[in-house]
Amino acid sequence: MLSHTSSSEDVSDKEEVVQVKQLENVDTDLESQSSSGSGDDDDIDAGWDPKAVARTMRKVDWRLIPVLAAMYTASTMDRANVSLARAANSGQMNIDLGLKIGNRYSIVTLAFFIPYICLEIPSQIGLRAFGARIWLGGATIAWGVVMLSMGFVTNWQTLAGLRALLGVFEATLFPGSVYLIACWYPRSKMASRMTYFFQGALFVTSVSPILSWGISHLHMKSGYHGWQWIFIIYGVLTCAVGIVAILLIVDFPDKATFLNPEQREIVLSRIERDRRDSEHDALTLRKCIKYLCEPRIWLFGIFFGSSAVSVYALAYFLPVILASMGFDNKMSQVLVAPPNFWCIIPAVILAKLSDRYGWRGQLVAFNCVLIVVGTCMFSQLGNNHVAARYAGVFLATGGCQSNIPLITSWAQTTIRSQSKRAFTSAFVVAWGSIGGIIASVSFLEKEAKHGYPTGIFLTIGLNVFTCVCALLLVVWFKWQNRKADRGEVVLEGCEHFRYK
């Protein structure tokens, strides 16, 4: 009995020594990074078996990214399918709900954005309080029920109210996913993981028009119109995704039960070595006000909103633009899909380059150039250059869809503390909805025959602004890093932190 007790104490002493050594390694690694500002994997993974690190992060990848991508797929499809339902069965929904009268349809579409924008920052508090499993999975089920309910509305006012409720629940997902991903990965892996999450959802969403077209053939089955079946089936599918999410989604690293203690320590020590913010700090009103006073966070929001204008413009008006090239209605719908499939390739390549070489603002500016060139090609060339105009659609789509995850990840690599991470993800993503509103009001229906000049030139101007400011921000970050190396400033409250 005595020898057993002595053995237990020895084991306890050894574990304590190991923990002390790990903490010493963290401090040593941070000291070694302070002069170079590096966040390379060799530094981050110091003291761990590389194979163990690789196994752990693969496990995290497969448990985190696919589930978040599935929920975001449901989110993007559900918020956009009101236009697909409206077009189904020769516009039966317009007749049933009187959507062609006045601005009723515009009210229905815009009702989503108001609560979506207002609740994104408050939603981050609930994510930490209730955990990702309950907060994100439960929200997905809730808006699935809302979608299902849309299939039974009898007037446009009820539809507008449900769209607003949809915005309430969906406000949790995108900023919550960005925040969650940022808490799991070091900065040198962030762009690629954001891109996998975003592009995985985009790939599936590209088939949404085809799925809606197929569902519309259930017209008058069991007495329901095609547009009603679209809402009903999408709602059921979303609820199913939410149930799966509750079962599979992972929480924050300090609460992750699917990892053993050693694997949790690997994840947390990588974060600690990279930026020393593995511990949670609560998001408060005082902190929100403080973060709002930082100009660069506003710049990231404007960058995101500028790219979102391009994304929404192509999503809403590309069929009309293709029709102006001489394609009939069927071909205009079919030709929307190839650019959306194509953009996955440049997005993944650029994300890998961003993580490998630390090119953040440089690649954002590069994508802005692609958007401007592509937009000029498809909008300004004549009808005798159809192939070149369609190639411009590929350039513009690839540029704006690549920029969305690049901007969100860049914003996350330049900050410290989990409260700031939560605030920044919500604030930046909220600008995406502002971009959607700008796109909807700047691409004027009365200008459709003339190629939407107001919307086109606004898109070009916003992306030129983003290109110039992104490059200036890169220069400012490098200047601040050099000042920090000389000991003249302390960045983000940590003497070892450098902008990346």
UniProtKB/TrEMBL annotation:
Membrane protein topology class: Multi-pass membrane protein
Domain Major facilitator superfamily (MFS) profile, residue spans: 67-482
Region (Disordered): 1-46
Main location: membrane
Subcellular location: Membrane
GO cellular component, one term: membrane
Residue spans crossing the bilayer: 105-122, 134-152, 164-184, 196-215, 227-250, 297-322, 334-351, 363-381, 387-410, 422-444, 456-477
Annotated keywords: Membrane, Transmembrane, Transmembrane helix, Transport
MF terms in GO: transmembrane transporter activity
PANTHER family attached to this UniProt entry: MAJOR FACILITATOR SUPERFAMILY (MFS) PROFILE DOMAIN-CONTAINING PROTEIN, PERMEASE-RELATED
Record protein name field: Major facilitator superfamily (MFS) profile domain-containing protein
Organism encoding this protein: Apiotrichum porosum
